Fold DMSO/TMAO reductase YedYZ molybdopterin-dependent catalytic subunit.
Amino acid sequence: MRRPETTGLIVRQKSPLNLEFQFSSLADWQIPVDQFYVRSHFPPPGLHEEDWRLSVEGAVERPLALSLEALKALPQARFPAVMECAGNGRVFYEPAREGLQWQNGGVGNAEWSGVLLRDVLAAAGVKPEAVEVILVGADRGVVDGGKKTASPGPIAFARSLPLDKALSDGVLLAHAMNGEPLTPDHGYPLRAVVGGWFGMAWIKWLAAVRVVPRPFRGYWQARDYFRWERGLGEPMLVPLDEMEVKAQIAQPVNGATLRAGEPFRVFGAAWGGETALALVEVDTGEGWRPARLLEPETRYGWRFWEHVWTPPRPGRYTLRCRASDAAGHVQPAEQRSDAESYCANWIIPVEVKAVAVRPGPADDFVI
Ligand SMILES: Nc1nc2c(c(=O)[nH]1)N[C@H]1C(S)=C(S)[C@@H](COP(=O)(O)O)O[C@H]1N2
Ligand SMILES: [Mo]
């Protein structure tokens, strides 16, 4: 088990262990594994690759039981991708919402390697009646330790993907993170990587890939991790899927003291769902200005950005950032009301103070 006290991670829950990345320390485009946030509903199941098999079952021509070795013998793929917990930023909801009180560090970007789910599905042969693919984790338990009256259990952590997403080139069954085998916390020996989607879809400790002929209504998408779609009729419950467009400020932090008249690098990261990020803007009190988007630009990775700003005079300032994607989605200014305690992507202001730069002591001057 990792030791948060040596890595600076914030403990959000001790058992099962849930850890938040210190977003203000953002520096590496690929977050080192020992800095990466951990979100687990149940304790890691303690799998060993020697006796572990991935079952590919349901509406398939040839059910399979694949060892890690067999998976590694299939064509390998790798890509960077950002994963954000749907509960990231929950602490900003007003009034407060139940659940782990994530600030802005329930997110991270890494490079993932493994096998495309679609290659595994092709090996098994998907039957024509298939509509969804359920990914089932090997972890099980009673939801929220049975503290809520409606807590079911024990159940496995499982979630489905629509067939078109499962067959896209954006879903990986990954055995490695940043070039190293997955650690127990991050889903060893195999986890899903669902490019553009919130973290709850990225099933860890994969046990089964189950192809099904009707939509799955499991706990983790019909009772949790959903939002409301309000049209003309009754509101409809929709499982969460794509991440929402979002930019976060890593520096300066809320409450920071800057120096008036000296340039400061406002810095952060931005990401979204399946659509490419188009723009990040920063407002320091004089209106929205485009930030500089930094390399690299990848299909599913996040984007670092910066904006050099000089506080013109001593005083208090409110900094804001917002991202837009190529489809015209813009980060909203107001808290959303359709997603329970999830998808907190509205703009979060950062308050800073600028102070006068004091002249050096007189004995700095040689007369
Ligand atoms: N089997 C299993 N997979 C899981 C979870 C879990 O509790 N069990 N948590 C999900 C959630 S809510 C998130 S945000 C991500 C977190 O992945 P990480 O711990 O590697 O950061 O894993 C997802 N996959
Ligand atoms: Mo999550």
